Amino acid sequence: MNDLTISNLQTILPTIDAPEKQTPEASSTSFGDYVKRSLTEVNGKMLDADQTINDLATGKNQDIHNTMISMKKAEISFELVLQIRNKLMTAFDEIRRMSI
Fold first, then answer.
1. CA-CA distance, 59 to 5, in Å (whole number)?
2. 26-38 pLDDT, tens per residue?
3. How many C-beta atoms lie closer than 10 Å to residue 86's C-beta?
4. Rounded-to-integer distance, Cα 1 and Cα 66, Å
5. Domain map of the chain by residue range?
6. Would you list the DSSP string of the chain?
7. Which residue has the higher pLDDT, 12 or 96?
8. 71 near 49, Cβ under 8 Å?
9. Cα separation of 76 and 79, whole Å?
10. Structure confidence by residue, pLDDT tens digits, 62-92
11. For residue 18, what pLDDT band results from cuts at 50, 70 and 90?
C-alpha cells in the first residue's frame, strides 16, 4: 500500500482542465444531460454494489473488503445526488417565492 503524501497526491487525483481549455462541445452539453449522466453513473455504482453483495453471499467472491468499498462508494454517490437535489429544490422554492 502506498503512503498518501502531498508529493504523490497529484498522481492519484484526476486532472481538471481550466475553463478556458474546455472545448466548445463540452460547454454545449445541457444541464439535463449532465444530470442524466450523473444519475446513470450512480445507478451503475449501486448495481455494482448489489452484484458484489450477491457474489459475497453466494460464495463466488470471498473478498469482503472490496464488497464494503463498493457499498460505501454507492452510498456516498447516492448521498451526493440527494444533497444536490435538496439544494436545487431549496433554490427553486426561493426563486418561486420572489416577487416580480
1. 37
2. 567 888 898 899 9
3. 10
4. 15
5. 30-97
6. -----HHHHHHHSPP---GGGS-HHHHTS-HHHHHHHHHHHHHHHHHHHHHHHHHHHHTS---HHHHHHHHHHHHHHHHHHHHHHHHHHHHHHHHHH---
7. 96
8. yes
9. 5
10. 889 999 999 999 999 999 999 999 999 999 9
11. low
Q: Which amino acid is at 46?
A: M
Task: Return the pLDDT at 94.
Answer: 94
Residues near 80 by beta carbon (within 8 Å), at least 6 away in sequence: 42
In which residue are the cell numbers 431549496 written?
90
User: What pLDDT sits at residue 73?
Assistant: 94
Instruction: Give the cell for residue 19.
Output: 475553463
Measured distance CA(31)–CA(17) in Å, rounded: 19
**pLDDT recorded at residue 1:** 45
The Cα 50–Cα 4 span in angstroms is 30
Long-range contacts of 4-7 (CB under 8 A, 24+ apart): none
